[in-house]
Amino acid sequence: MIGRAIAFAWLRVRREPGRLALGVIGVTAIGALLFDMLLLSNGLLVSFRERLDRSGFDVRAVASESAVIAGPPIEDASRKLAALRGEPSIAAVQRVRLGSADIAGTPPGRHVTVAGVDLAAPVPWTILEGGMASSNIPEPLIINRNLSRVLHLTIGSPVVLNGRCGSGSRPLPVDATVAAIAEFENDASDALTAASSSSLVGALCGERADEADMLLIQSNPARGGPNAAAAAVRTRLPGLHALTNDQIVDRFSRVEFSYFRQLSSVLTAVTLFFGLLLIAVLLTVSVNQQLGEIAALRALGFSRARVMAGVLCESALLIGIGGIAAIPVGGLLSLWLDAILRSLPGIPADARFFVFTTHAVLVHAALLGAGAVLAAVYPMRLVAALPIATTLRREVVS
């Protein structure tokens, strides 16, 4: 019966190519927007997780439970690093100390973010040019590509950094030499970023304290992975708060990125409503125009259920064809929208707002399927309640 209902619906749809084209175009446009909203709801979170994993570190330790990326300074960092390096579940540990500086001889306002690390340990960036392995430079400086382009710096260029310090700190000029050009984690496309030793960052403001803003940890997969490494940090150093990448992503999903999920949910509901309205209107108009034909079919022996199934299948055909076409159209539209959002200041260059996932496709199909049923409810009710004799008499008289 289902096969015959589909065939019957297809014959009805083909008889009115204008209505078919209008319905498919409308559903394609609405379905493409719906698909993009589903990609947006989870895209930034998926992209954030990819960037965390790409850094090579799967656990982060900070001094405050309320901070995820950076918090109050971690004091006595060298001792704590040594303690963690002896843990079997930890493969490597890196400290990160953040500072800000101006480069002497450059226009004012071009502030450089400087990250201080242990250069002998694994680092959270990717070297593009140059390197540290054979460098004999006393104060090597690693810069990002944007800093190299804006200030015309190359490998071997001398640089004088003037620390930007708060009250109570004394800025000092620090000499450094560009040793490498790198791509930094979560770096915005317009950011001016550099990295060197943690001692250089401390010297920018005349500070010699053994501090770090964050500890980055590589877990040992053979000894329990990130969960075991995080547990080891909490055991050995109770004052620190260790979070795995999974825990960071979960927190950002509930707090920082919840805005995008709420926004996409509202836009999804609005988009789906207009899609249902469009198909419901088209089907209702079609049914009203063919009441005499439907009454004649009922008089010839077509059951009420079969005619109603035909209306439902007609709705499914319109939404199904438009929904399939909506996926590639929505994919192309998402590339354009993603480029606009990524051009906003402060957005990481490798961030993505719209990420294609199988889950988004399945939800898209489920919503459109439910929409096909809801859009057909009123037209099916008209068919079910149709008085056969009265309709045929009215058609003959008219």
- Number of helical regions: 13
Beta-strand residue fraction = 15-25%
Helix content: 40-55%
Structural shape: elongated
Tell me the Rg in angstroms.
Answer: 31 Å
Return the string of H and E elements. HHEEHEEEEHEEEHEEHEHHHHHHH
Number of strands: 12
Q: Biggest sheet, strands in spatial order?
A: 3-4-9-6-8-7
Distance from first to last alpha carbon: 34 Å
Mind describing the biggest β-sheet?
6 strands, mixed, barrel
Mean pLDDT: 80
Q: By helix and strand content, what is the structural category? A: alpha+beta
Low-confidence stretches: none
Task: Walk me through the structure.
- With 398 residues, the protein is an alpha+beta fold.
- It has 13 helices and 12 strands.
- Helix 2 packs across helix 10, helix 8 (258-289) packs parallel to helix 11 and helix 8 (258-289) packs parallel to helix 12 (377-384).
- The chain has helices at residues 2-14, 17-54, 77-85, 145-151, 198-203, 225-236, 245-254, 258-289, 291-299, 304-342, 358-375, 377-384, 388-397, and strands at residues 59-62, 74-75, 90-103, 111-117, 125-130, 140-144, 158-163, 173-184, 193-197, 211-212, 214-219, 241-244.
- The strands form 2 sheets. The protein has a 6-stranded mixed beta barrel with strand order 3-4-9-6-8-7.
